[in-house]
């Protein structure tokens, strides 16, 4: 959501500073995704970072030696020491970056479900409450939305693939669930910033900024400001692309009853979209493209997903994971609710 939400909020008139990280879990982090854009710089010194925010209203950067330096080390180590799901480390990582970035109003998307760091709803609630409690004590306006990650958000799971999807969404042509979530999160922040009082009007306004190209204009500005090639926004074929594709086809006709986000993430990781160990190099081009999601009908033999592949070493295992991530039933089923709960300021 970050790749869409940050330029969208800037287009709505907010000043947005965001510190993000690299891979945690099964695919690349926000910084890995941004670095699939040719030339894009994420290692901004504090003064340059804050200068960009002041001048253009937005910047998105990695931890640096003068901005949350300890978290940078802990962030990378959590990925390879089985502590990705450690609640204290998650809270410290999230809030340290928000405070260091100078945020006065904070909205956090807390995931729950199979693909989340904390898949159980009670654990997600505990995380959300801890974040709100710390933010309140530090004098910040803060709220969290607990959102569903039982199936992947959007249709792309990868690095350059997700940048491509973000560009499509900022152009008004993205997946409905990704657009909806970004507009709901954005509306929360507009309310905290006292820019809007009506949630429905805020959502409608943000949706308009996606469909009239204002969000995409801010995305291009951010890319240019940080040394990247903004022409990728007009020609996404300039982004890294995998040399091979492998289709996953439906074994039977019916309705998609389940799409396991964790299995899809593991498959993307095996293809090279994430890190198995800290020293691994991410392949920005690879990942999984979803063609069918929960609630959609499918006929036997129709494609369910496409694997974007460069190195075929783990292709068979990745294929098996994606095949088994899908469950196809006979009964009609609705997709899971996108927003599970809202945890407001104390």
TrEMBL record:
GO CC annotation terms, alphabetical: cytosol
Signal peptide bounds: none
SMART domains per the UniProt record, alphabetical: PYNP_C
UniProt keyword list: Glycosyltransferase, Transferase
GO biological process: pyrimidine nucleobase metabolic process; pyrimidine nucleoside metabolic process
One Gene Ontology MF term: 1,4-alpha-oligoglucan phosphorylase activity
Family from the record: Belongs to the thymidine/pyrimidine-nucleoside phosphorylase family.
NCBIfam families: PRK05820.1
Quaternary structure and interacting proteins, as annotated: Homodimer.
Name of the protein in its database record: Pyrimidine nucleoside phosphorylase C-terminal domain-containing protein
Species per Swiss-Prot/TrEMBL record: marine sediment metagenome
